[in-house]
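Quick one: structure tokens for this chain, please?
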Amino acid sequence: MFRSKLVLPFPLLIIFLTSVEPKCPKTCDLALASYNVWPGATLTFISNYVFAQTINETLSYNPQITNENYILSGFRINVPFTCDCIGGEFLGHVFRYRVQSGDDSYDVIAETYYANLTTAAWLEGFNVYGPGQIPANAVVNVTVNCSCGDAAVSRAYGLFVTYPLGVGDSLESIAAAENVSEAILQRYNPGVDFSAGSGLVYIPGRDESGNYPPLELESRTGFRSGQLWNRLNVDLLNYSDTTTYMDDYLELFLLL
């Protein structure tokens, strides 16, 4: 029997294909935010109200904190969050911050409460309230950018910190503090002046064990490299399924 086929006109086909292709290269379950503690901030406020997580989640990436009830202002802590694809356009995470009083402005939220991890202009673009018109108890969308790594730069680093540059920062000082080469940092942030005193950069981060986890790449079927190794082990145990084993082995070879 003859079956008709749906044929899209070429211009419409192009629009269809490009509209469903996200611009985000990949997302990741974990990213870190470098939070510069401001005078009067507490770990309870930072964890519960700013990042909507428990204190223990924050502490797990900050072994240098020995007293959760006392943290010095000007001290940087790393706070975990998920790195998502926002609107199919860019990598980031949208936090929901409930305004404490009518005095809270986009400037205060961005520069103080979120420690320059975002900007007032960025907040204004993601919320319906105009500047100076945020009512008390309103929930403000706070968008923070993030990175999941870049295999073209290095596969040695798979966890990244969104790091707001401050006065006194430089490429040399950050590289020395993180024990990462200056060349690698610059390649992850092309064209960025690390001595600018403001703006965001992305630097390799350490996991809960204090190590730099490697980048996990995704295969054509969506499996990550670690998952493929596990599948290979299962296939090897079930060695009778030779075809499946060879398919998984080839996929991992192409991925690496």
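Confidence is low (pLDDT under 50) at residues 1-20, 219-223, 226-237, 243-256.
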